[in-house]
Amino acid sequence: MITQLSIRHFKAIASATIPLGPITVLVGPNDSGKSTILQALMALSRCGDPAQFSPEQLLECSPSVAARHGDKSVDIEFTVDGITTLDFDGKRHSYRYLVAVSPQRDVFSKERILWDDRQILESEPGNLIYGGNSISGQRANSTELSLQSRASSAVPASAIERSVNAIANDLSATMLRLDARAIALPAPLDAPVRPDGYGVVGIVDEWLTSGVDDERIERVNEILRRLSPHVAKMATKKHTPSGGKELYFALRTGAIPASQMSDGVVVAAALALISLKSAGQRMLIEEPENGLHPRQLRIVADTIRMIADTQGAQIILTTHSPLLLNHFTAEEVVLVTRDQSGVHVQRMSDAKGLDELASEMALGELWYNIGDSNLARPA
């Protein structure tokens, strides 16, 4: 789990440190930097993907475009502090991972890894120090990250490699902007799951027909039954016009297509399915309230909490909904504001006078009535 993210010179953010927990809800005005934080986490996720081998692929745009105000003179830098477990010993270990990109030269300019407060890797153009040993000439052009090349000869098989693998796995994430209508659409079984949820019917069909995934599909069904007493289980049916499959929900009165089901339940099903399929990867969710009736927001919030509690997945989401915010605690909410001096980040629990205010109104109501700027003042 990532406990803290630091960002420098990336898009709207000159410098910011964001505290993260098992569940973190980012709130703030439009254009305050919330989406930039999620984009930074996705860039870090790609640091361990061998297919994302260039800074442009890592950032999903040219580094000169991603640099704050287009200033090429300062490197873009991400640093994460986290805690992860090695399968090898079952113990919890702390780590710090830093990666920097040069907008001027379009290369990785620095990479550093600390494991249990001990530096195990430092890489700069033309030089690699791995496990305390200098390996000259490696990555002279900075075209590859150590997290991506951990199986190469430059990173020997060792206890250090296990640590590097664990960090790469812990940084992996899935970005979602779910839409109940997209989730309900018929899809070919081999269609990749999109950020809007299109294609999750393929996960359901695979688990129902494999003969070995009964436990996983039942875990999702159990979540849905806890959220809605009317739902018995999920099913799929062939959609003849498209040749694909369509997601169905079995109720006591019969099966109905997802397009006729409560949007909240459909979104909850997609969240649970994607989380289980991705084996507990970090989930980054943009505005899960979009398109949902206010009464459906409790279903989504309860699903997020169940996934975090039962699957151990870290969930970081953005929202503009006071009603959704009512279902989280002040310790889980992070205020993101922006003024002429830059982007500012603060836990809502650190807001001045919060205890007194929280005794008079719900968290979302408090946020809506007091406002971001007034809350974003340390106690």
Could you describe the 3D structure shown?
Strand 6 and strand 7 form a beta hairpin. The protein is globular and about 65 Å long. With 379 residues, the chain is α+β, with helices and mostly antiparallel strands. About 3% of the residues have low confidence. Helices cover 31% and strands 30% of the residues. The chain folds into 3 domains: 111 residues, no CATH class; 123 residues, no CATH class; 100 residues, no CATH class. An 8-stranded antiparallel β-sheet has the order 2-1-4-5-6-7-8-9. A 6-stranded mixed β-sheet has the order 10-14-15-3-16-17. Strands 11-12-13 form a 3-stranded antiparallel β-sheet, covered by helices on one side. Helix 1 runs antiparallel to helix 4, helix 7 packs antiparallel against helix 8 and helix 8 runs parallel beside helix 9.
Task: Spell out the blueprint of helices and strands.
Blueprint: E1 2-10, E2 13-19, E3 23-27, H1 34-46, H2 55-59, H3 63-66, E4 76-85, E5 92-102, E6 107-115, E7 118-124, E8 127-130, E9 133-136, H4 159-171, E10 173-176, H5 180-184, H6 200-210, H7 214-227, E11 231-239, E12 244-251, E13 254-257, H8 263-277, E14 282-286, H9 297-311, E15 315-318, H10 322-325, E16 333-339, E17 342-347, H11 354-358, H12 363-370, H13 372-375
Parallel strand pairs: 3-15, 3-16, 10-14, 14-15
Antiparallel strand pairs: 1-2, 1-4, 4-5, 5-6, 6-7, 7-8, 8-9, 11-12, 12-13, 16-17
Helix pairs in contact: 1-4, 7-8, 8-9
